[in-house]
TrEMBL record:
This is Type II toxin-antitoxin system VapB family antitoxin. InterPro entries: VapB_antitoxin. Pfam families: VapB_antitoxin. It comes from Oceanobacter antarcticus.
Length: 77
């Protein structure tokens, strides 16, 4: 059984009805400890965006030039 519910974002007040698998949502709430479905969905979207940005950055590997002292940067000396 799936449920329909309302998602509201703070930035643009977008509202949408979505159908999410009950087991998937229950697992997400249980694993994360979030109290609301909204929290779980918003954090899931943030994680998805973060992963996509990381993948885009990895595509640049080997194509950028860098110079500096990594040990100095790490120690601040």
């Amino acid at each position: 059984m799936c449920i329909k519910w309302l998602v509201s974002t703070q930035r643009c007040n977008m509202r949408t009805n979505i159908v999410i698998d009950d087991k998937l949502m229950a697992d997400a709430l249980s694993i994360t400890g979030f109290q609301t479905k909204k929290e779980a969905v918003e954090e899931g979207l943030k994680a998805l965006i973060r992963l996509k940005k990381q993948a885009d950055i990895r595509k640049l590997r080997g194509s950028l030039e860098w110079s500096g002292d990594i040990d100095e940067m790490r120690t601040g000396k």
